[in-house]
Amino acid sequence: MDAEEFRRRGKEMIDYVADYLENIRERRVFPEVEPGYLRKLIPGEAPEEGESFENIFKDIERVIMPGVSGFICYFI
């Protein structure tokens, strides 16, 4: 990733966080996942090669966000 792509991707992530905070009232207060849910959604070992930012970004919503508590983030 060169400096220009880093800037662009960083801005995309800032927009994602800002959108999340603006729409936090639409998110669940408590996650509907069980402890350990993440283990079966991610590979058991690190990949040999990196993934595209697009795939990583999709995984944020698909894998990470179901376990995030809106209750905690609301007060930050």
Structural descriptors:
0% strand, 3 helices, dopa decarboxylase, N-terminal domain, mainly alpha, 76 residues
Short overview:
It is built from three helices and no strands. It has helices at residues 3-22, 53-64, 70-74.
Question: What would you note in describing this structure?
Answer:
The chain is mostly helical and 76 residues long. It starts with a helix and ends with a helix. It has helices at 3-22, 53-64, 70-74. 49% of the residues lie in helices and 0% in strands. The chain has one domain (3-74): dopa decarboxylase, N-terminal domain, CATH 1.20.1340.
Q: Based on CA inertia axes, which overall geometry fits?
A: flat
What is the helix/strand order? HHH
What is the CATH architecture annotation?
Up-down Bundle
Q: What is the CATH top level name?
A: Mainly Alpha
InterPro entries: Aromatic_deC, PyrdxlP-dep_Trfase
Protein name: Dopa decarboxylase
Keywords: Decarboxylase, Lyase
GO molecular function: carboxy-lyase activity
Question: Which helices and strands, and how do they pair?
Answer:
Elements: H1 3-22, H2 53-64, H3 70-74
